[in-house]
Amino acid sequence: MTTRRRFSRRGNIVKQSNRQLLEDSLAAAVTRLISEHDPTIGKPALRIAAKLAAFIASSVAVQTQSVQRALPTVEDNLEPLARALMVQLVEQAQGRFDPRLSRFKAVPPPAPSQYPISLPADWAGPVAGPTVIERHFGIPRSTLFRWQKRDEAIALKTGSSRFVFPLKQFVDARPADGIAALIAVFGDHRSTWQWLMSPNEKFAATPPIDALLRGKVADVVAAAGLASEHGA
After folding, report:
1. What would the mean pLDDT of 170-183 be, rounded to a whole number?
2. Which residue(s) pair with 225 in the sheet?
3. Distance of CA 130 to the CA centre of its chain
4. Which InterPro entries does the annotation name (predicted)?
5. Distance CA 74, CA 181 (A)
6. Which of 2, 31, 52, 74 is most exposed, with the fewest beta carbons within 10 Å of its own?
7. What pLDDT sits at residue 183?
8. How far apart are CA 55 and CA 22, in angstroms?
């Protein structure tokens, strides 16, 4: 038993010494994944997200075997613990927040009775204005405004009455198939995007936008039609 414990301690010392290498590798991977998800994310936010994810993951990976065996006992509480950490981070960050930046955030939609879910302030996901989209995605401003006017792409009004476009709706620099049909179903851009981003039981409690991006256009449009009728 003593030999086994000694071996475990030695192994943990080795893992601890390699933790920084693991953290650096994880940070690089997280940076790449987040950048692919939202190319417009600010560099400070990207850096902090990567550092935080890498530090937590690498710290868990180098725990002793006894700690690793105990970790499953808190697995059901991981989300509340993570949310508490995020609340603390956001509260500290907002102490230095410039209120003028709020004009770049999509105005939260009203919460209709058929959508009992409480949507967070960033309910729309990553969004960007025409200038940023043209720079990062190569979609001309004139094309974006044409899509918006023809109800072929979703545009959301911000607090300063400017329009931003949810980035997740674009596939290969074009609106995903089905976006125009969904706008026609709901009658306005905001309601359409709210429904697309809200977890839906018809899609295993995942947002319909995920199914739409997997090519399930007919299923998503049909579900939207039922939701629209139910809410009428």
Report:
1. 94
2. none
3. 20
4. Xre-MbcA-ParS_M
5. 44
6. 2
7. 96
8. 9
Closest CA to 191 of 227, 217, 222, 218: 227
Percent of the chain surpassing pLDDT 70:
78
Distance CA 48, CA 31 (A): 10
Strand partners, 200: 206
In this prediction, residues 44-55 reach a mean pLDDT of 90
Question: How buried is 99 (Cβ within 10 angstroms: 0-12 exposed, 13-18 middle, 19+ buried)?
Answer: exposed
Q: What is the pLDDT of residues 181-211, one digit of tens each?
A: 999 999 999 999 999 999 999 999 999 999 9
Place of tokens 């949810």: 166
Of 121 and 222, more confident = 222
170 close to 119: Cβ distance less than 8 angstroms: no
Counts for the chain of helices (H) and strands (E), in that order: 11, 5
Q: Is 211 helix (H, G, I), strand (E, B) or coil?
A: helix
Tokens of 50: 């990567």
CA dihedral for 95, 97, 100, 101, sign (positive or negative): negative
Strand spans (E) along the chain: 127-128, 156-157, 163-166, 170-171, 174-175
